[in-house]
Amino acid sequence: MMKNILLIGGSHGIGLEIASKLSVKNHVYVASRTIGGLSETNITHIPFDALSENLSDKPLPEEIHGFVYCPGSINIKPFKMLTEESFRNEMEINFFGLVKTVKSVIGNMVEGGSIVFLSTVAVSTGMPFHTSISAAKGAIEGFARALAAEYAPKLRVNVIAPSLVDTPLSERLLNNDKKKEMMAQRHPLKKVGRVSDVANAVLFLLDFENSWITGQVIGVDGGISTLNMNS
Prior knowledge:
231 residues, alpha/beta, Rossmann fold
């Protein structure tokens, strides 16, 4: 049976890759501000701004089997250069937008449905210049575990925590070969992530065949969070 999968953000980068892979065997709906790369697919696009609009006002499927929240940010700066407003902005797009959309869709989620959020390896591994994004994504991880406990066994809730992935969002960090090589060498697997690496992990968690996984934060990070290669 074809499943209904809803993505918030999915017109570029990781979200577009997830949506494209899912659309082969599912009905995929993407709620995002722009249509981006979706125009060349059979995916249903729902114009939507997570910061200013209510998803309940949009034409959603009555039954949702999978839900993924993709919007995020990369604001890597020294703490002394970040204002309180910087932290509020990170929380709005990464966390409060997520909470608001989950509120809107959770009543449509079917028994056995799967919810997946995206975090960052910087939450579990202290990294300089990541204070604002780590705070916002850390909120997601805590929220996800609590939500997973509250809605078990009806729903599963998990988080993917990537390291640096080559996307338009990270272009500033990977805009020449020297930067790419430097970033690759930081990871035990000696490469930065591809959008397909993260998308494949999300598809695994959405699959009803993998129904004994909930409340987990899974690193897709080239080994950087757990392997010390310097000893």
